[in-house]
């Protein structure tokens, strides 16, 4: 099985509030530093299903499409199409505890360019840490 990276953060909100922020892709360029564009291409059961994103992260840049699956305590995605990326599979697992929720972000990145394993893990960790921090800030206001 391919290696992946994960990290967690505690957010002062219930899972549904957090999932609503995660699902609001058109606002991503406002609060996610590495996303310069996000467009929902299709929806299913009121949630985005296919999303086009433009990633401008210092370690990874691409224009790609993800497919999302939603459940009450988890959202997961996988790469449908990318230029540089050949895998971008991840999930947010939400574990509630009263009025707080622990969000665990797991990510696996693979590119069409040769990339040494530790460099991939560093890119994943950088993306995860930035995303979790931005999500917390957006949800908690």
CA-CA gap between termini: 38 Å
- At the fold tier of CATH, the topology name is Alpha-D-Glucose-1,6-Bisphosphate, Chain A, domain 4
Along the chain, the helix and strand elements come as: EHHEEEEEEH
Strand order of the largest sheet: 1-7-6-5-4-3-2
Number of helices: 3
Tell me the helix content.
25-40%
Number of strands: 7
Strand and helix map with partners:
Elements (H helix, E strand, L loop, with lengths): L4 E7 L3 H9 L4 H4 L3 E10 L2 E10 L4 E11 L2 E9 L2 E13 L2 E12 L5 H24 L1
Antiparallel strand pairs: 1-7, 2-3, 3-4, 4-5, 5-6, 6-7
Any overview of this molecule?
With 141 residues, the protein is an alpha+beta fold. The protein has a single domain (5-140), classed as Alpha-D-Glucose-1,6-Bisphosphate, Chain A, domain 4, CATH 3.30.530.20. The protein contains 3 helices and 7 strands; from the N terminus they run E-H-H-E-E-E-E-E-E-H. Strand 3 and strand 4 form a beta hairpin.
């Amino acid at each position: 099985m391919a290696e992946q990276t994960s990290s967690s953060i505690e957010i002062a909100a219930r899972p549904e509030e957090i999932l609503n922020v995660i699902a609001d892709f058109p606002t991503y360029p406002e609060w996610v530093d590495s996303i310069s564009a996000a467009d929902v291409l299709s929806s299913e059961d009121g949630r985005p299903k296919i999303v086009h994103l433009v990633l401008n992260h210092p370690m990874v840049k691409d224009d790609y499409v993800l497919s999302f699956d939603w459940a009450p305590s988890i959202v997961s995605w996988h790469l449908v199409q990318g230029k540089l990326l050949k895998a971008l599979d991840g999930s947010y697992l939400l574990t509630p505890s009263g009025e707080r929720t622990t969000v665990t972000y797991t990510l696996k990145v693979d590119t069409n360019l040769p990339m040494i394993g530790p460099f991939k893990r560093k890119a994943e960790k950088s993306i995860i840490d930035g995303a979790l921090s931005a999500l917390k800030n957006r949800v908690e206001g």
